[in-house]
Specification:
Distance between the termini: 121 Å
CATH superfamily of the largest domain: Histone H3 K4-specific methyltransferase SET7/9 N-terminal domain
Radius of gyration: 35 Å
Length: about 250
């Protein structure tokens, strides 16, 4: 019995304080390793928790700086910064070849903007409070000119299209699509009146030519369909049928 007690008295067991210090050290080491792994992952992928996936090659500093932001979808933005906010000129490049030039003021798009499309078209518009608003023009590569109005980033209101061959169309946009009554003026003096519904010609329409002839017909899903009536300038009438946009 005495020998057992002597054994216990000579046994060096770690104190609670020592055990606590070792546990704290292990937790600190593990936390450091996890932090290094997380930093390495963010640097490699450019991902930020809770935000748009992007990578800034030149992060903003305390003063003025410029940088490039690369997005996961292949787009990129070149932007100037002042006091950590986007200010001044910016250029946004889409991966499909489109490019937009505009200005930032305290992180909000403002002022005139120009978008050059990969197909050669060019749009000139203006930003107010971060959205396109007001008059805009689209210069098409084929020579056509489209004039319209932006309201909170969508085409809305009266618009005109001047075709390169001298034709002209007057119509209206509603929430980005052609809607309502429209008139087409041909370069030969002819005219046609019809209705757009969500960008597609629908319903009754009629056309005139310089000889005084008038045709009444119907659009269905953008094609002339069904019965039509031709009223000649001398009052004579002729009925016929459209099928798939063609007279039969």
């Amino acid at each position: 019995m005495d020998a057992f007690q002597n054994f216990l008295s000579n046994l060096k067991l770690p104190t609670l304080e020592a055990l606590y210090n070792k546990r704290t050290l292990v937790i600190a080491i593990v936390s450091g390793v996890l932090a290094l792994l997380a930093y390495s992952l963010i640097k490699k992928t450019g991902r930020k928790a809770g935000g748009l996936s992007k990578r800034a090659d030149s992060p903003p500093g305390a003063g003025e700086s410029a940088g490039v932001i690369h997005f996961d979808n292949g787009d990129r933005e070149e932007v100037e910064r002042v006091q950590g906010k986007k200010n001044g000129r910016a250029v946004y490049y889409w991966r499909n070849g489109d490019k937009e030039q505009f200005f930032y003021e305290n992180g909000i798009k403002t002022g005139k903007t120009r978008t050059t499309y990969a197909n050669g078209d060019r749009e000139e518009a203006e930003y107010f409070n971060g959205s396109k608003n007001g008059k805009a023009q689209l210069y098409c590569a084929n020579g056509d000119l489209l004039q319209y109005i932006y309201v909170q980033g969508e085409r809305d209101g009266e618009a005109q299209c001047y075709f390169a061959n001298g034709d002209r169309e007057e119509f209206s946009y509603e929430r980005g699509k052609k809607n309502g009554r429209a008139t087409f003026y041909g370069n030969d003096g002819s005219a046609e009146e019809y209705t757009y519904i969500n960008g597609v010609k629908e319903g009754k329409a009629h056309a005139f030519d310089v000889k005084g002839n008038k045709i009444r017909f119907t659009y269905i899903r953008g094609e002339k369909e069904g019965k039509a009536v031709l009223i000649r300038g001398d009052g004579a009438r002729e009925e016929f049928v459209y099928q798939n946009g063609k007279r039969i």
